[in-house]
Amino acid sequence: MNFGTRMREKMWFCVWVLFLFGSCCGRFVVEKNSLKVTSPDALKGVYECAIGNFGIPQYGGTMVGFVAYPKSNRKACKSFDEFDISYKSKPGGFPTFLLVDRGDCYFTTKAWNSQKAGAAAIIVVDDKEEPLITMDMPEEDSGRGDILPNISIPSALINQSFGDRLKKSLENGDMVNVNLDWRESLPHPDDRVEYEFWTNSNDECGPKCDGQIDFVKAFKGVAQIMEKKGYTQFTPHYITWYCPEVFTLSKQCKSQCINHGRYCAPDPEQDFSIGYDGRDVVIQNLRQVCLFKVANESGKPWLWWDYVSDFSIRCPMKDKKYTKECAEDVIKSLGVDLKKINDCIGDPEADEDNPILKAEQDAQIGKDSRGDVTILPTLLINNRQYRGKLDKSAVLKAICAGFLEKTEPAVCLTEDIQTNECLENNGGCWRDQVANVTACKDTFRGRLCECPIVNGVKFVGDGYTHCEASGSGRCEINNGGCWKESRDGLSFSACSDNESNGCKCPSGFKGDGVHACEDVNECKEKTACQCRDCRCKNTWGSYECSCRGDLLYMEKHDTCISKNASKEISWSFLWVIFLGLAAAGVGGYAVYKYRIRSYMDSEIRAIMAQYMPLDNQGEAPTNHIHHPDI
Ligand SMILES: *[C@@H]1O[C@H](CO)[C@@H](O)[C@H](O)[C@H]1NC(C)=O
Ligand SMILES: *[C@@H]1O[C@H](CO)[C@@H](O)[C@H](O)[C@H]1NC(C)=O
Ligand SMILES: *[C@@H]1O[C@H](CO)[C@@H](O)[C@H](O)[C@H]1NC(C)=O
Ligand SMILES: *[C@@H]1O[C@H](CO)[C@@H](O)[C@H](O)[C@H]1NC(C)=O
Ligand SMILES: *[C@@H]1O[C@H](CO)[C@@H](O)[C@H](O)[C@H]1NC(C)=O
């Protein structure tokens, strides 16, 4: 290969790309998150920063830390090891966000050096006053391409004037606390996330292509589960370019385009004389779109993930298997209708539009808040461009952040992305240690304090200081948080299924019903068993009352009566009268009347007065009346 030709082709390539993007409406949207300064007071407020296209932004979450500005190596172009500086936070300390200046080296180099020094995030200060830009990774993979996959801290770019204010404050010795917030970086309007992946079937473009296919393989499982359950609607997309009309008949356009220059892709090796050509890539791309379309029509859109990963494994360019035959074998083994796919691909030689690729080109142009798709690969979540590393858990986190809160699928709450903030101090949430019930829920958004549902019983409360079981069945769980005790085979509980009653000590007990209910000593407190002939004995939760001699205790009326008279309360009173009559003897009516009055004590008289009309109703009741119903 002649170096000169190669250079010329590269030049031509650049001109072409410039032509396509420079002339068209290229609109790139800078995706942002917010940076909230919480101290010092003079700087308090919410500022904007731009999310870098590498590292792992914490979509849906926040990060708290304090800002440090290095004394030397302020551009972070060298390793901080050389300066013997470390920004590792001590246990329990705030993480460090390293403030560095733009310039002299790649953004990725700065991020890598900061990460190695222990910083939890990097904040780059722009070196000129301009609107925020997106920090990207270097185009050519020469040099430090190997560090890209290892950058895991989030990065943010701030403008020069805000950077200067931060620096000034730090110079004054202020502790600058900030909160990086990505919660509003993605729209999250409803319970379904729509996402698109703009990709390419080319597998020989270095780390970028490797990154794409590695991502598809790693994300496939999760993607398919979410798609099958209807949580997401995924659409793959492929960028194509068109050949400027003046070049349509050139050798370059013929080798890179199909349908007479309408749909082109760059040569995989950027060398027209070897290996596969751009047109091979376009046709494979088209086959992948068509596979998606056919699979989607048969209700199985997720087959795209299988096809793309199988194809990359079975038909790689390096083994010279990037062919129609190999692709068709993969399609057949997935059981997708090959004829429909070939109909969809159509004739690449035809001088006419291919409706599928035409639609793909139209979709490249951004609309509303979405910019044009110009970077490959690009992930769009809820119509916003994802920034950051194409890493399984980082992307999952971002997709999860696209659900309306509390509608996210279980996969968003799995170990993969959870941080287990509930382990320490129960995340500051309510907990019932006895029942082993907690309000702490660890999610990708960070921990939530939310009263749980345990075995179908709903807990209600603020989630922080209290949660209470509610509804029927609430007494099943930890006795509804109420007091409960058993002694000698007797059990008492302060819980009732009617939650509006709260915890209430049962009768015979007094207390708050939650922590304690104490036995009421009915004998001492003279609330029962107070009749003259009664003998009172307190028991746990109740009391026993007996009467002297042959007399029987009547609990309801707290009185003792003769044993024979005990069948029925109303009858017993008749018996009392009868006995009275007997005792009165056979004396005259006046004598009887006098005797019965003296026989009956005033209490019985009072009781009887409630039940039957006695003579002398006009008499005022005596002062000894008490209410025996306990
Ligand atoms: C710089 O950023 C701050 C905070 O986001 C903003 O208030 C300010 O207007 C920006 N300045 C310029 C010149 O864009
Ligand atoms: C990046 O990470 C990989 C795997 O963890 C490791 O093997 C490699 O050495 C790392 N690269 C650098 C530059 O640290
Ligand atoms: C896939 O199918 C769904 C439902 O049938 C439809 O709404 C969606 O537009 C289809 N997607 C594409 C890219 O054809
Ligand atoms: C509490 O419940 C969790 C899961 O629900 C379980 O993993 C843990 O072992 C339980 N702890 C105790 C002390 O029972
Ligand atoms: C629960 O108790 C309250 C008053 O204590 C009562 O108004 C309500 O009707 C009861 N509810 C049920 C379902 O019994």
UniProtKB/TrEMBL annotation:
| Family annotation (SUPFAM superfamilies) | PA domain
- GO terms under biological process: protein targeting to vacuole
Pfam families membership: PA (PF02225), VSR_TRX (PF25011)
Listed A to Z, the keywords are: Calcium, Cytoplasmic vesicle, Disulfide bond, EGF-like domain, Glycoprotein, Golgi apparatus, Membrane, Protein transport, Repeat, Signal, Transmembrane, Transmembrane helix, Transport
Which subcellular locations apply to this protein?
Answer: Cytoplasmic vesicle, Clathrin-coated vesicle membrane; Golgi apparatus membrane; Prevacuolar compartment membrane
- Which residues are in the EGF-like calcium-binding domain? 519-561
Q: Name one GO molecular function term.
A: calcium ion binding
InterPro entries the record matches: EGF-like_Ca-bd_dom, EGF_Ca-bd_CS, PA_dom_sf, PA_domain, VSR_TRX
Checking SMART domains in the record gives: EGF_CA (SM00179)
Q: So where does this one cross the membrane?
A: 569-592
Q: Where is the signal peptide?
A: 1-26
Of the GO CC terms on this record, one is:
Golgi membrane
UniProt membrane topology term? Single-pass type I membrane protein
The family note in this entry says: Belongs to the VSR (BP-80) family.
Name of the protein in question: EGF-like calcium-binding domain-containing protein
This chain's source organism reads: Dendrobium nobile (Orchid)
